[in-house]
Amino acid sequence: MEKNNNNNNTFISRGCKCMPNPQNKQWKVHSPTCAKLHSFNWLNRIKLPDSKEDIDVVEVRFKNSRKDFFRAPSELTLAEGDIVAIEASPGHEIGIVTLCGEAVKLQMKNKKVDINEAELKRVYRRAKISDIEKWVSAVNLENKTMFKSREIAASLDLSMKISDVEYQGDMTKAIFYYTADDRVDFRELIKLLAEAFNVRIEMRQIGMRQEAARLGGIGSCGRELCCATWLTNFRSVSTSAARTQQLSLNPQKLAGQCSKLKCCINFENDCYVDYAKHLPDAQIILETNKGKAVFKKPDTLNEKVYYAYEHAPEQMVMIPLKRAWDIINMNQKGVVPDELEETGLENTEEALDMINPEEDSVERFDKPKKSRKRRLKKKKNQNKQ
């Protein structure tokens, strides 16, 4: 049972919900819900005009995020989820059709591929039973091959990490993905790998981010890694974005599983940059009768800013952004307010009770709960009275 689960997991990285069954042609293995980097065909149910010809290009997916476009023959009608044999060098490769129809044009435009000028490889046919059987055997060898190749690389004292192995569908070639800090001379390694596995060897170096995207995992937010599910275009992440959002410059908190800065730091950075345009200049000093106040830091999400009096720099006062601009305008007109905070309900005990009601207090967890018997007994006594 455990062996079957491992085999199924190897096919999940190719967009399959289970291992293909070559003997059953109606066996559906394609599952968009569990497919990593799935392309949703939102034009699937829209009927094209009769004058418009169907596009003869399909998007085919292989292991993890590896996808490519292939030109299908006119007599072959393909649908999403079909297992096809496509042109490779050498031999043929087995993949799953993930997108077809008019949406392929938009996908190619998004990836900057010209449908007219691009020399696309061909789709040979739908995969036969023998093709699928050989493909299943190749996929089941990948984990064993990866561990064995790591042992061979370690015996040669090579400073590299083989993170993934992908067999070609016809078992004539294997792609070894590795990461390394420096240039690696793996000529001897290729000879040993070719002798051990009797296939053509291709080495591909990938970065730390690409390795995390291929292997997948759970982020600190509790969800699957963005690069392993939907994120395809990597933008450079810098510490300036972390400073803009007032994040703690702690490498352990800012680094992801790839040991680089988390990509999600860029997600809200534009919002913080736009908000910073509305902030008052940090060099402006607010003058009040209580004393002069200097700018400390902003609170972006709450639209508030922190100031501190010069005579008490450690005691910061949080005021609304509108209040800060009002004081600046008042100072420009020669008017000096009494203090930073506005007088009124905000500073009264009644306002504090409204903001922090008792049910939201952490101390409510310290109060012992009344048992059900005591509540029923109390209710019974009230009814007697």
Protein structure class:
alpha+beta
Taking the alpha carbons of the first and last residues, their distance comes to: 66 Å
- Spatial sequence of strands, sheet with the most strands: 1-2-5-3-4
Number of helices: 13
- Strand content of the residues, in percent? 15-25%
Topology order in helix (H) and strand (E) letters: HEEEEHEHHEEHEHHHHHEEEEHHH
Based on CA atoms alone, the radius of gyration comes out at: 31 Å
Taking the sheet with the most strands, its summary is: 5 strands, mixed, barrel
Shape designation: elongated
Integer count of domains: 4
Low-confidence stretches: 344-366
The counted number of beta strands is 12
Secondary structure: helix percent: 25-40%
Mean pLDDT: 82
Any overview of this molecule?
With 385 residues, the protein is an alpha+beta fold. It has four domains: 2-137, no CATH class; 142-210, GMP Synthetase, Chain A, domain 3, CATH 3.30.300.20; 235-277, no CATH class; 278-385, no CATH class. The chain is 31% helix and 19% strand. The protein has 13 helices and twelve strands. It has helices at residues 2-12, 103-110, 129-140, 142-155, 187-197, 208-215, 226-229, 239-244, 251-254, 269-276, 321-332, 349-355, 372-384; strands at residues 57-61, 67-71, 83-87, 92-99, 121-126, 161-167, 173-179, 200-205, 286-288, 291-299, 304-309, 316-320. The strands form three sheets. A five-stranded mixed β-barrel has the order 1-2-5-3-4. It has a four-stranded antiparallel sheet with strand order 9-10-11-12, with helices on one face. A hairpin with a 6-residue loop joins strand 11 (304-309) and strand 12 (316-320). Helix 4 (142-155) crosses helix 5. The radius of gyration is 31 Å and the shape is elongated. The termini are far apart. The model is unreliable at 344-366 (pLDDT under 50).
